[in-house]
Amino acid sequence: MVTLKQIARELNLGVSTVSSVLHGDNPHYNAQTRQRVREAAERMGYRPNHLARAMVRGKTHTIGVMGLTTHDTVSGERLHALSDALDNAGYKMLYVSRTIGDLAVERKHLDDLLDRQVDGLLIQTDLYGDPDHYASLWQRGVPLVLSGLAPDRSTLPWVWLDNTSGLYDLTRHLLELGHRRIAYTPGQAAHLYPHHRIEGFHRALREAGVESQPRWIMDDRPSIRDNIVQFTRDMLQSTSDRPTALMYNNDEQAFAGLQVIMQMGLHVPRDVSVTGFGDLTLSKLACPALTTVTQPAAELARSGVELLMEQILAKQAMPCRQIMIPTRLTVRNSTGPAPA
Amino acid sequence: MVTLKQIARELNLGVSTVSSVLHGDNPHYNAQTRQRVREAAERMGYRPNHLARAMVRGKTHTIGVMGLTTHDTVSGERLHALSDALDNAGYKMLYVSRTIGDLAVERKHLDDLLDRQVDGLLIQTDLYGDPDHYASLWQRGVPLVLSGLAPDRSTLPWVWLDNTSGLYDLTRHLLELGHRRIAYTPGQAAHLYPHHRIEGFHRALREAGVESQPRWIMDDRPSIRDNIVQFTRDMLQSTSDRPTALMYNNDEQAFAGLQVIMQMGLHVPRDVSVTGFGDLTLSKLACPALTTVTQPAAELARSGVELLMEQILAKQAMPCRQIMIPTRLTVRNSTGPAPA
DNA sequence: CTGTTAGCGCCTTCAA
DNA sequence: TTGAAGGCGCTAACAG
Predict the structure, then answer these.
(1) Domains, chain A, with CATH or none
(2) Which of A39, A289, B221, B275 places its Cα 20 to 30 Å from the Cα of A149?
(3) From the CA of A11, how many Å to the nearest CA of chain B?
């Protein structure tokens, strides 16, 4: 590794001269000296040591990112978007992925990132995070952004996808197609969480004056929790008065459901309409192509980085800001007019 | 930020004493002193500054990872696996994602990582990488592992998935089901690359004494390159003598193909069998569930990290080692007996 | 048992 | 226009 000192010795110059010419904005150096320094640096293959610089400047230009191991499919896309957004801001990411459920491991990961002097933290949230811990970090002045799920509390910087209105749009779409009997699997813990998709579902029905039947909403009993196969069968087995549309809580589940529906000899969307949530790369390719809600990964990333940079660049403590990213209804072939 | 110096001053001790008690393995310190130091560190909330330590030790315990932006779906899974594997080895990853095609940007990213003094580099390879550059880094002594695609050259550490035998297995599976007219879209640049899947395809056919028809292999003309819809239509439009099985080069493409097949009024697998490659989370959920080749992400990650650690821990230059990860045939419902 | 010293590579005054 | 000194937080010898 070539250092400034080595270049300085080589040229019989002071270290600070070399440093200043190479990185500084000090313009009043002898043109010839500058030339010699530049030439030597080039020739010797000098590369600045980011660590040393970070130490003295107190800034690493690195953001600690904690991602989720769930939702494989969507997280890849989000991560790439984040990498790009950070790159544009001149930052790199130190990445760890979080295995849900173990809060101790999670804290250890965050401590590790902080020990490495990251300039900020970007945490992808889900139901099983540790918001109290995030809050205490934020209180200590750690620049930090939570990203993904709707805010848990108003006192933390948060970027979130407006899932509620996403599901509202989706439900309205079905209503406009004439569906009146609509079933939905809101997933675990729907009621624990503010701004959950189920709110959008209920609001759309209410506005249309349509009654939602409790038995058309998958409840939380452990036996059927997450059991998409069971849900789909339960919903569709009675021939009369059965739902004409099934709304799944994400695209993966919708695919699993489609499989069951086909096996039952029903046709989508002629007999039943199906919706997902999230819009995976595959969802437009599948058959039938899935009507779903698209979550703009790039915008989410951009806004997250924006919120982070605000905090990092701010002289004093910033008031906490939250950014809502709208989702987009994407209509494809898995939904159609309600059967007569 | 609490430093060792502050603790030392607080306790009227030397910095090195505090350092040694807190991090060192030197056991002969006064039990009472140790206690005092520990207690003070705890009370003052001391956290070691990883940067400072890295500077003096010359090791950051950080690996630079360059991932691909293509194949969103699979990359998320691989990244999580990598994060876990690195975690087990006590390393963190500095992640950048590579936008294919721009070699200059790619080199800049790698330089950035190196400037940050990463202890090694893990690069996900595809057809558009810059192996010459990787080779020059490796020659300079940078611990480095290439991962994903089959090795381009024997002089670089490489972890790769045995795609050739993956496709061999897949083809044999079809042959055993009685298929004789099998079409395949090997993707771009199949012939540029060693150990490509198409080798497995040809080998299986050859062993079974089945002739492959050139027109059943999608060629590289720009007009139809990557055009799955066109390929599928071309293959299936003639009613007689048409392929009874279509092999796509990845799962996404298979899904796109399935869609077209259904639109043509054909049934899978009764009329046509379909295979993918890669095994996405969704592939087992889709309808029909996709017969494909599973690529073990965790093993790939583990072996990559293993190869990296070998180099990092080695006293002198290691001979270059390459590890092949076998793939696994996964039979589901998109393949069935060839129609009579 | 404990403290002092000398860096790691760089940047930032400040003096020459 | 240039250079010397001091320090970022820590560790590794080496003295005491």
Answers:
(1) 4-48 (1.10.260.40), 60-160+297-326 (3.40.50.2300), 163-295 (3.40.50.2300)
(2) A289
(3) 23
Q: What distance in Å separates the CA atoms of residue A320 and residue B137, rounded to the nearest whole number?
A: 44
d(CA A62, CA B113): 11
The reply to whether A4 has its C-beta less than 7 Å from any atom of strand C is yes
Across the interface, whether the CB atoms of B256 and A117 are under 8 A apart is answered no
Structure confidence at residue B225 as a pLDDT band (50, 70, 90): very low
Give chain B's mean pLDDT.
90
Kindly state the helix (H) or strand (E) to which residue A94 belongs, with its residue range.
strand A92-98
Distance between CA A196 and CA A285 in Å, rounded?
A: 28
Chain B residues with beta carbon closer than 8 angstroms to that of A79: 67, 75-76, 79, 95, 97
Quickly list DSSP for B119-177: SEEEEE--TTS-HHHHHHHHHTT--EEEEESPPS-TTS-EEEE-HHHHHHHHHHHHHHT
Of A99, A161, A96, A164, nearest in space to A129 by CA: A99
pLDDT at B318: 76
Question: In the 8-state DSSP scheme, what is residue A224?
Answer: T
3 state DSSP class of A176: helix
pLDDT confidence of residue B278: 92
List the nucleotides on chain D closer than 7 A to a protein CB.
1-13
Q: Is the pLDDT of residue B1 over 80?
A: yes
* Alpha-carbon distances of A339 from A243, A270, B53, rounded to whole Å: 10, 7, 69
Q: Which chain A residues are within 8 Å of B52, Cβ to Cβ?
A: 55
Positions in chain A whose pLDDT score sits under 50 = 222, 224-225
Structure tokens at B156: 């670089």
Please check whether residue B250 touches A, CB under 8 A: no
What tokens appear for A178 in the block? 């004439």
Closest nucleotide over all strands to A12 (CA to C1') = D3
Say whether pLDDT at B71 is over 70.
Answer: no
Summarised one tens digit per residue, pLDDT across range A59-101 is 999 999 999 876 556 678 889 999 999 999 999 999 999 877 7
Nearest-CA distance B64 → chain A (Å): 9
In this structure, what token pair is assigned to residue A121? 């933290």
Chain A, residues 107-146, CB within 8 A of chain B, namely: 111-117
Q: A227, A255, A332: which to substitute to probe chain B, counting the most B Cβ within 10 Å?
A: A255
For residue B28, pLDDT beyond 90: no
Which residue type is seen at A97? S
Sequence-distant (≥ 6) Cβ neighbours of residue A244 within 8 angstroms: A179, A180, A181, A182, A272, A273, A338, A339
Residue B76 or B299, more confident:
B299
Query: Exposed, middle or buried by CB within 10 Å (0-12, 13-18, 19+), for B294?
Result: middle
User: How confident is the model at residue B149, as a pLDDT?
Assistant: 85
Predicted confidence at residue B27, as pLDDT, reads 67
> Is B19 within 7 A of strand D by CB distance?
yes
| Å: B39 CA to C9 C1' | 33
Q: Kind and range of the H or E element at A97?
A: strand A92-98
Percentage of chain B with pLDDT > 70?
A: 94
CB A56 under 7 Å to nucleic chain C = yes
| Cβ of A51 near strand D (distance < 7 A) | no
